[in-house]
Specification:
The protein contains 6 helices and no strands. The protein has about 130 residues and is mainly α.
């Protein structure tokens, strides 16, 4: 199994693929690995949509950090806070961002991307109301 095929397949698919048997009752051989010169995988439209969604998400996360940083003076004025007090706003936002980015990936693997997305959308809607 090549690195690309190992990364593209889910753990469940790998365990099912390893347990397949032939008609004679013996274990089947692993699929042959592609030769070194041949491309291992042709990217499909679904792969490109996934990459574009990931890039969009990363762009939004970086842009959110920049918005918080550039609007600290407005936030400071709105809260009537000192410069030492307002530094906690940026620190709290960055800590939450650093925790949630890897945690969202873990939650997506544990449950499913669809379930995590629906829960996040509903939670955002409820918090906004």
């Amino acid at each position: 199994m090549t690195l690309i095929s190992a990364l593209r397949r889910s753990p469940l698919a790998r365990s099912q693929g390893a347990a397949t048997t032939t008609a004679a009752g013996g274990r089947s051989a692993a699929p042959p690995a592609p030769s070194r010169g041949a491309p291992a995988h042709q990217a499909s439209l679904r792969d490109w949509i996934g990459v574009l969604a990931m890039v969009t998400g990363q762009f939004m996360a970086i842009m959110d950090v920049q918005i918080v940083t550039s609007s600290l003076t407005q936030i400071q004025g709105g809260l009537s806070a000192t410069s030492q007090e307002i530094s906690w706003v940026q620190t709290a936002y960055l800590i939450a961002d650093v925790v949630m980015v890897p945690m969202s990936g873990t939650l997506s693997r544990m449950f499913s991307t669809r379930y995590v997305f629906v829960t996040a959308a509903l939670g955002f809607t409820a918090a906004s109301a």
